[in-house]
Amino acid sequence: AQRVTQPEKLLSVFKGAPVELKCNYSYSGSPELFWYVQYSRQRLQLLLRHISRESIKGFTADLNKGETSFHLKKPFAQEEDSAMYYCAARGAGGSYIPTFGRGTSLIVHP
Amino acid sequence: SQTIHQWPATLVQPVGSPLSLECTVEGTSNPNLYWYRQAAGRGLQLLFYSVGIGQISSEVPQNLSASRPQDRQFILSSKKLLLSDSGFYLCAWNQDRGLGELFFGEGSRLTVL
Lengths: 110, 113
Prior knowledge:
By secondary structure, chain A is mostly beta strands. Chain A has no helices and eleven strands. In chain A, about 0% of the residues lie in helices and about 50% in strands. In chain B, about 35% of the residues are buried. The radius of gyration of chain B is 13 Å and the shape is globular. In chain B, strands 2, 4, 5, 6, 9, 10 and 11 form a seven-stranded mixed sheet that branches. Chain B has a four-stranded antiparallel sheet with strand order 1-3-8-7, with no helix packed on it. Helix content of chain B is about 0%, strand content about 60%. Chain B is mainly beta. The interface of A and B includes residues 32, 44, 52, 94 and 101 of A.
């Protein structure tokens, strides 16, 4: 079954500390992976996607096919990074319906 | 540019009353449309999706239904609300082609009393 797992419901760090939000997936073939973010009182929006290999707001995510992981990382957390983060996957080859993880709430303390 | 509108933003309804949440997408044609429910600790639960007018697929059995009367309109309904229907509902869209990104509405907070 297609599944996206985010093992941590809550991640609490201090400003300036490194952050890693974990995501593991179980998908046949080569899925497309995404991270979405929801800041307080804002709509859920895309943060980054693995095929773009981009860094957004200092966040990066590397696809590890061997470990079937797509962890989100930032070397130095900022208070404005506090938000809800969702990992999502979509099957390649025409399966357009994304599957979301349960989400991780990141709290960055001053 | 494409936009997605969802309303009402907040709704308080008594148990047993009907429900209608509406979602409209502008600036694109033939989008895939989705209704999700967002619950703390449970993430995003896909309720319904639609690939075209009149085509609705349900992911979970429940007290809710969905309809797509027009290409860019998606409606979430219930004939009789239950307490357990309370929650935060999100409408979203994407295209089969492209990079697969989902675009979300601002959400509707439903409280059933």
